[in-house]
Design a protein that fits this description.
The chain is an alpha/beta fold. About 50% of the residues lie in helices and about 15% in strands. It has a five-stranded parallel sheet with strand order 2-1-3-4-5, with helices on both faces. Mean pLDDT is about 85; it is low at about 135-145 and about 400-405.
């Protein structure tokens, strides 16, 4: 039995929460309690639970609605519903929606409840093991694009793998250059749509007059230069994936049209009154905080909720320095192979220096820097001297700052400044300086010889 299992208990009645809390903590499970459906949804969206035990009837959001919300994106978490006798219609409804079991009130024997919980957790364990086996089989395909070593990126790729199993919209957040499009392509390649088209559009690089016909298509004569009717990406994808990068840069009018596409699964080409059914998987990306843009009413709230079903946040490179060395070597190998050059390698000193860089441009900056080195460096061994000048100077500044932050260095700087000020005040009369400072005369002699001679 998995005693490390995380269980969420949701019930508006305190006695029920305490009942399950007592049973479950005695068994060694990690228990979280919620007293409303709204609180349950919030906890589930931020945490991973193995089992949720939830009352069907609650005053704010019912257990049925919470279950619907969960099952839209999460098929694996076990859910046991709590119901009163005589409420079998609701029980049947929850089982149809994907509940795994139910406990009637008043509760039966504690031993039976423990066995039912154990059985649910065993099923959860089997689902996980099957999932891991599928991922091992899929992982044998060398996608050759995303390399990492950090736990932070391992978490990102785990979320991407899980997202590929579903068909819900995905929102990928992250700074410029972190590899959001690569994550989107990974989701597509791992999904059931992998043999169908993948279209990527940078919404920030196209005006609305170009973005709309690119995605929706246009009819002949719809605008100047429209010499023939053309399918847009939504229509041409034919069951594939459409990736919209920099979605935050779109206009309010475009957001209205995109929302309709997501809701109705149909489009109307520019210059046409006819609607066409479309089938595609939407993945969006942004380097901005969409939630804050929604609060500022810059981005539509209803569209944000439609797009943000599965959210993946890609961390900046500065938060995962363990990935830097593997990225340096990977891009070096790729560049040398592409240019037909002998393999080049970074020295340990060069890698150590590059690990101290802030990498504001993230992975893209690493790739660009490596390609510069490959093109301009004559040798096969890349030491610090072969790094671009701006990286060498930045490294010196970082090293200087780190050195000044060492306690011994800071202490020396303080004592030197203090001694000069003290002796200037005492007009270099050491006895007076000793009296003013409280330092022994012998100590002052020693420090004067060390700092001022």
């Amino acid at each position: 039995m998995n005693k490390e299992a995380k269980i969420l208990v949701v019930d508006d009645e305190g006695y029920a929460r305490q009942y399950f809390n007592s049973i479950l903590t005695d068994e060694g499970y990690r228990v979280t309690l919620a007293k409303s459906g709204k609180e349950a949804v919030n906890l589930w969206s931020k945490n991973s639970f193995d089992l949720i035990i939830m009352d069907i009837r609650m005053p704010d959001i019912s257990g049925v609605e919470v279950l619907k919300n969960i099952r839209e994106t999460d098929k694996d978490t076990m859910v046991i519903m709590i119901s009163a006798y005589g409420d079998m219609d609701s029980v049947i409804e929850t089982m149809r929606l994907g509940a795994n079991d139910f406990f009637p009130k008043p509760f039966s024997s504690i031993e039976k409840i423990k066995i039912d919980i154990q059985n649910c957790l065993e099923r959860r364990k089997l689902i996980r093991e099957n999932y891991q086996l599928r991922q091992q089989v899929k992982g044998s395909k060398d996608l050759g694009k995303i390399v990492y070593k950090s736990k932070a990126m391992a978490h990102v790729m785990d979320l991407a793998s899980r997202a590929s199993e579903l068909d819900s919209p995905v929102l990928i957040e992250g700074e410029t250059g972190t590899g959001k499009e690569l994550v989107a392509r990974y989701i597509h390649e791992m999904s059931s749509r992998k043999n169908l088209p993948f279209f990527a559009v940078n919404c920030g690089s196209l005006s609305e007059n170009l973005l709309e016909p690119t995605l929706f298509g246009h009819e002949k004569g719809a605008f100047t230069g429209a010499i023939k009717s053309t399918k847009g990406y939504f229509e041409a994808s034919m069951g594939g994936t459409v990736f919209l990068d920099e979605i935050s840069e779109t206009s309010p009018s475009f957001q209205v049209k995109l929302l309709r596409v997501i809701q109705e699964s149909e489009i109307r080409r520019v210059g046409s009154n006819k609607t066409t059914r479309v089938d595609f998987r939407l993945i969006s990306a942004t380097n901005k905080d969409l939630a804050s843009l929604v609060k500022k009413e810059v981005f539509r709230k209803d569209l944000f909720y439609r797009m943000n079903v599965i959210k993946i946040s890609v961390p900046p490179l500065r938060e995962r320095p363990e990935d830097i060395s593997i990225l340096l070597n990977y891009f070096m190998d790729c560049a040398c192979k592409r240019l037909g050059l002998k393999p080049k390698t970074f020295s340990k000193e060069a890698i150590a220096v590059l690990k101290t860089m802030p990498w504001d441009g993230n992975v893209r900056e690493v790739q660009n820097m490596v390609e510069r080195i490959v093109a301009l460096s004559p040798g096969d061994f890349i030491g610090i001297d072969f790094l671009p000048p701006e990286y060498q100077s930045l490294s010196e500044k970082v090293s200087s700052l780190e050195s000044s932050l060492r306690y011994v260095t800071a202490k020396d700087i303080f004592e030197h400044a203090y001694l000069k000020k003290l002796l200037s005040y005492a007009r270099y009369d050491l006895e007076k300086a000793s009296s003013v400072s409280g330092l022994e005369l012998s100590t002052l002699y020693r420090k004067k010889n060390r700092y001022l001679n």
